[in-house]
Amino acid sequence: ELKVEQNPLFLSMQEGKNYTIYCNYSTTSDRLYWYRQDPGKSLESLFVLLSNGAVKQEGRLMASLDTKARLSTLHITAAVHDLSATYFCAVEGDTGNQFYFGTGTSLTVIP
Amino acid sequence: DSGVTQTPKHLITATGQRVTLRCSPRSGDLSVYWYQQSLDQGLQFLIQYYNGEERAKGNILERFSAQQFPDLHSELNLSSLELGDSALYFCASSPAGQFSPLHFGNGTRLTVT
């Protein structure tokens, strides 16, 4: 079964700092997605990465994909409190019929 | 608003009972996915339907079943409920074909007492 691992699981950072969340997966898939979930809420799609070397940016978040290393990163620049949430990466299986989610990274930005 | 509608929002029931969760996908989306989210198991894929047919099965218990109807709405049936079934159940939809993110509903929070 395809495995998706995220680290760290918990991240507490100060406002204004930079940090990176890592997502490792065990398949050769080149389709990776990042989602955000606020406590008790639904998951919201952030980024869709569909090829090796893909980079997407939205505000203070930037996601990248290295399919050879089977690694995606979510970089946070100059964190603000509003970014506090849980972030999930998900890998699409070969048949497109399953999305395998990572364990999630719970981010808390401290003023 | 993702366009995916789930009902009910909350459900409290007793062990041994049976419940039905309902999901209406985004307009035009043919695929429906069901996920279970609990604190200790994370986000677990249960089952996927595409245009009325089952396409993929994940960690779905035999006590659980689902179906997708001709109007594309889907129902997840949970029976002989146990305390451990308490979780947030999400439905997600996507259009036909690959390379599209899932769009999640707001979930149904099930509490089994």
Summarize the structure.
The complex is a heterodimer of chains A (111) and B (113). Chain A is an all-beta fold and 111 residues long. Helices cover 0% and strands 56% of the residues of chain A.
Note down, in words, how this protein is organized.
- The complex is a heterodimer of chains A (111) and B (113).
- Chain A is mainly beta and 111 residues long.
- Helix content of chain A is 0%, strand content 56%.
- In chain A, a hairpin with a 5-residue loop joins strand 4 and strand 5.
- In chain A, 34% of the residues are buried.
- Chain B is an all-beta fold and 113 residues long.
- In chain B, strands 2, 4, 5, 6, 9, 10 and 11 form a seven-stranded mixed beta sheet that branches. Chain B has a four-stranded antiparallel beta sheet with strand order 1-3-8-7, with no helix packed on it.
- In chain B, strand 4 (31-38) and strand 5 (42-50) form a beta hairpin.
- Chain B is globular, with a radius of gyration of 13 Å.
- The interface between A and B is medium-sized, with 22 and 24 residues.
Set down the secondary structure blueprint.
The complex is a heterodimer of chains A (111) and B (113).
Chain A: E1 4-7, E2 10-14, E3 19-25, E4 32-37, E5 43-49, E6 55-58, E7 61-66, E8 71-76, E9 85-92, E10 99-101, E11 105-110
Parallel strand pairs in A: 2-11
Antiparallel strand pairs in A: 1-3, 3-8, 4-5, 4-9, 6-7, 7-8, 9-10, 9-11
Chain B: E1 5-7, E2 10-13, E3 19-24, E4 31-38, E5 42-50, E6 53-57, E7 64-68, E8 74-78, E9 87-94, E10 103-104, E11 108-112
Parallel strand pairs in B: 2-11
Antiparallel strand pairs in B: 1-3, 3-8, 4-5, 4-9, 5-6, 7-8, 9-10, 9-11
Q: Tags for this entry?
A:
heterodimer; A: 111 residues; mainly beta; 6-stranded mixed sheet; 5-stranded antiparallel sheet; globular; B: 113 residues
Sketch the major β-sheet of chain B: 7 strands, mixed
Quaternary state of this entry equals heterodimer
Which regions of chain A are unreliable across 5 or more consecutive residues at pLDDT < 50?
Answer: none
* Count of helical regions of chain A: 0
Radius of gyration of chain B (Å): 13 Å
The ordered H/E elements of chain A are: EEEEEEEEEEE
The main β sheet of chain A shows up as:
6 strands, mixed
Strand-pairing-aware structural class of chain A: mainly beta
Bulk shape of chain A: globular
Largest interface: A-B, 22 and 24 residues
Per DSSP, the total helix count of chain B is 0
Percent helix of chain B, as a range, is under 10%
Report the principal-axis shape of chain B.
globular
Give the DSSP E fraction of chain A (strand runs of 2 or more residues).
Answer: over 45%
What is the SS-derived class of chain B?
A: mainly beta
| Count of DSSP strands of chain B | 11
How much strand content do the residues of chain B show? over 45%
Number of strands of chain A: 11
Order of helices and strands of chain B: EEEEEEEEEEE
What separation lies between the terminal Cα atoms of chain A? 40 Å
